[in-house]
Design brief:
Distance between the termini: 33 Å
Largest sheet: 9 strands, mixed
Radius of gyration: 18 Å
Helix content: under 10%
Structural class: mainly beta
Number of strands: 25
């Protein structure tokens, strides 16, 4: 359940309660599957969203959408991060020498944004992992797998499967996580959506995706089911992969990668003493944490 917490007090306001300063309800935007000929450059105007200020370098909003022909009601929680003001790094949960489960309530007090990252197996994170310049794991193989990477200058990029070997050989990465599918490259749909064997075009679930815009800012999109109020927002109903890509395209993303959604999807935003939190139902071994740059 999404909760709004005032740190240091007993106040807990859940979604659906009256929250002072909350955004007024607005009609949902219609979102369909991204079409293969569409591009980010062709978007005439981005959605008119009521952004809320987060910590310096962070702003966020709730974007109500109606998905597909049936108009499935979902809220996209959209976060925009300025990497010039917020430093993102991986957090690998450990207990001694063993991997440990992570969830947003374990995010450090210094975090202004925190969310689960990448995919995982029973043994731990899946695929390529670089943390603080050290490679923890080599890239894994997958035709639609990509990576979200931050170089030594703090510049974020989304890499496609065909670019991973060269990027690894080149080096100079501070943080890297591998995930799938890679859905946007240069503002256009990738083979994951438009290739000979695309991903399932009909499966709906909770989604979490990360992207980058031409201006260098990072976009994060988390979906929550909105048809039955707070009690149902973690139901596994949400956009398809292609609908998520279309939402990212309309938001201005040029490159984008799906992260682990479903039961794993979780997000925390901290603005001073106020914490906005969308919990998951499953703990994960890997997270991305954003803290203010000094």
């Amino acid at each position: 359940m999404r909760s709004r917490i005032l740190v240091g007090s007993a106040l807990l306001l859940t979604l659906g309660a009256a929250v002072p300063g909350a955004q007024p309800a607005s009609p949902p935007s219609r979102i369909g599957a991204m079409r293969c000929g569409d591009s980010t450059a062709a978007v005439a105007a981005r959605p008119a969203l009521a952004w809320q200020a987060g910590a310096p370098g962070v702003r966020w909003t709730r974007w109500p959408v109606a998905l597909g022909d049936r108009g499935v009601r979902v809220t996209f929680v959209v976060v925009e991060i300025d990497p010039a003001r917020v430093a993102l790094s991986l957090e690998i949960a450990r207990e001694g020498n063993a991997l440990a489960p992570w969830s947003v309530e374990l995010a450090p007090d210094s975090a202004v944004v925190a969310f689960n990252a990448g995919q995982f197996t029973d043994a731990g994170p899946w695929g390529w992992v670089v943390h603080r310049g050290r490679e923890w794991q080599a890239p894994a193989s997958g035709p639609y797998a990509g990576a979200f990477a931050i170089d030594s200058a703090g510049v974020p990029v989304v890499l496609g499967a065909q670019a991973l070997a060269a990027a690894r050989a080149r080096g100079g990465w501070r943080e890297v996580l591998q995930s799938y599918p890679h859905v946007l490259a240069g503002g256009r749909a990738t083979a994951a959506l438009c290739g000979a064997a695309p991903v399932d075009a009909s499966h709906r679930d909770i989604r979490l995706a990360i992207g980058t815009r031409a201006d260098g800012r990072i976009l994060l999109v988390l979906s929550r089911y909105a048809a039955v109020g707070a009690i149902g927002e973690r139901m596994p109903i949400g956009p398809t992969t292609a609908e998520t890509a279309e939402g990212l395209r309309q938001l201005g993303a040029r490159d984008a990668l799906m992260l682990d959604g479903g039961l794993s999807a979780q997000l925390l935003l901290r603005t001073g003493r106020i914490v906005e939190r969308w919990d998951g139902l499953r703990r994960v071994p890997l997270a991305l944490i954003g803290v203010p740059r000094s």
